[in-house]
């Protein structure tokens, strides 16, 4: 993918004065539902109307989409509202049908991106078309797999490409449905700064009340747009009810988001500074989360020491950790003084946690 600017042209040609916005229901449920939501979104910042036609569900028995019938509804959306349309494709048969019904943009989901075989099948089916294709990150945090899927499409002659960051699965329970791992998105941008990157806050959060904050973080990190699931009656949606917002809520989110435009040198400087600060905020949040996990382990250690009537302070262990961390710090360009202060504070907090457990 040498000529990355060529891939950016489809977004540049749109000449938008705001981030690209893709919105619509998680699933196309009925013709009435699809058209109602589209009409409520037509006079907004929405550029592409999304609706899931084929829904890859984690477990069988859940609603798996209306299938090709929904493509006719998307045609009506375009006819009645003028909105461009987009849907997810997971195999060559989906691609063929989507092309027949002139869907404007296709996206490839996280479960498909994870398979090079599926990505090649889709790339072959799309060869020779000028459709815009977005690739969601794979379910696991594997940057090479994500880029590899995009490269297969590019090799097949698809030039209008982009990526969607929808977060990553984890066995740990967090406040997110899929942890954002912003650092991976930042690395993606560093490798391909001219490849459009869209954030999907709906799948990252899994909760509608968190969508604004994640969207703002994405814009601060210079994402090119947002994909937000939108439903006129989200509580009664047939899939992913908790993460969908109403059209009015979406419009309010777009009004409230701070969008930093780069128009002159001063604004460009501030934009770069805000981007770097946003990256620091991401890492700071990761640090707090990691320290919280460390202290939970300290609580467990305190319980073990209480059972065996062992002293909280184990000097040999502490000196061993300190020596190792000073060496690691040097390799990362950190001064010995800083590492000592930081780990003494961490060690003291760990002691406090263990004493609390032992004295309970």
Can you walk me through this structure?
It is an enzyme of class 5 (isomerase). Its EC number is 5.4.99.5. Keywords: Isomerase, Transferase. It holds the Pfam family DAHP_synth_1. It is a single chain. The chain has an 8-stranded parallel beta barrel with strand order 1-2-3-4-5-6-7-8, surrounded by 6 helices. Helix 4 (92-100) packs parallel to helix 6 (116-126) and helix 12 (265-308) crosses helix 14 (336-358). Helix 2 (31-41) links the parallel strand 1 (20-24) and strand 2 (48-50). It is elongated. By secondary structure, the chain is of the alpha/beta class. 52% of the residues lie in helices and 10% in strands. The longest helix is centred in the last third of the chain and has 44 residues, at 265-308.
Principal-axis shape equals elongated
* Main beta sheet strand tally, sense and closure: 8 strands, parallel, barrel
**In CATH terms, what is the fold-level topology of the largest domain?**
TIM Barrel
How much strand? 5-15%
Structural class label: alpha/beta
* CATH class placement of the largest domain: Alpha Beta
Supply the number of helical segments.
14
Q: Percentage of helical residues?
A: 40-55%
* CATH architectural label of the largest domain: Alpha-Beta Barrel
Number of DSSP strand runs: 8
Average pLDDT level: 90
For the record, give the distance between the C-alpha atoms at the N and C termini, rounded to a whole number. Answer: 60 Å
Strand order of the largest sheet: 1-2-3-4-5-6-7-8
The CATH H-level homologous superfamily of the largest domain: Aldolase class I
Count of individual domains? 2
Q: Are there runs of 5+ residues with pLDDT below 50, and where? A: none
Spatial extent as radius of gyration: 24 Å
Question: What series of H and E elements makes up the topology?
Answer: HEHEHEHEHHEHEHEHHEHHHH
